[in-house]
Specification:
heterodimer; A: 118 residues; mainly beta; six-stranded mixed β-sheet; B: 113 residues; 0% helix
Chain lengths: 118, 113
């Protein structure tokens, strides 16, 4: 079974500062993908960044980067230069990929509520 | 359509009633997923369709919950004899088989009173 743990229920960051949101995962499958989603108060799930278990380099997407430490089974999200619009709930999620290429459903963590202070 | 569409956006029903929630995925996405999100928590998996068939329904909490996808596109989540504990946001997502990410709909907020 897969499990995602997010130990920070809430985080505060000053505008323009960087912030790291923690995520650890547990799986016995060798092939998997890690996702981060943003969920504003309006409710939609917005995809931010993806890291495959075999990717050699950490994923980056604009101000978002993923600090992937495979041996520690951690996939922390780093947001640089925080903006007021970054205030939202952030979810880490994992998907196991089978050798056939088919993928299973996402398993989500409990989320971290990020508040950016002016 | 351009995105995943879920209707209705809000549904209030009385305890014991039957409800249907609809999901219209992105055209060409063969995989469709239903999740339930309770307040302050992450989404929990309910059921996964590959085409018309339910590839994994292990997340359905009990036999009051059922979902169909008869033509491999639109899916309907059906809840019988609703209970107050069923109140949550029901999210639908779709993806291409085995690749890429998932696109989520805006969800249906179900309130059972």
């Amino acid at each position: 079974a897969q499990k995602i743990t997010q130990t920070q229920p809430g985080m505060f960051v000053q505008e323009k500062e960087a912030v790291t949101l923690d995520c650890t995962y547990d799986t016995s499958d060798p092939s998997y993908g890690l996702f981060w989603y943003k969920q504003p108060s309006s409710g939609e799930m917005i995809f931010l960044i993806y890291q495959g278990s075999y990717d050699q380099q950490n994923a980056t997407e604009g101000r978002y980067s993923l600090n992937f430490q495979k041996a520690r089974k951690s996939a922390n999200l780093v947001i640089s230069a925080s903006q007021l619009g970054d205030s939202a709930m952030y979810f880490c999620a994992m998907r196991v990929v089978f050798s056939s290429g088919s993928a299973r459903q996402l398993t989500f963590g409990s989320g971290t509520q990020l508040t950016v202070l002016p | 359509g351009a995105g995943v569409s879920q209707t209705p956006s809000n549904k209030v029903t009385e305890k014991g009633k039957y409800v249907e929630l609809r999901c219209d995925p992105i055209s060409g996405h063969t995989a469709l997923y239903w999740y339930r999100q309770s307040l302050g928590q992450g989404p929990e998996f309910l059921i996964y369709f590959q085409g018309t068939g339910a590839a994994d329904d292990s997340g359905l909490p009990n036999d009051r919950f059922f979902a169909v996808r008869p033509e491999g596109s639109v899916s309907t989540l059906k809840i019988q004899r609703t209970e107050r504990g069923d109140s949550a946001v029901y999210l639908c997502a779709s993806s291409r088989l085995g690749e890429g990410g998932y696109t989520f709909g805006s969800g249906t907020r179900l309130t059972v009173v």
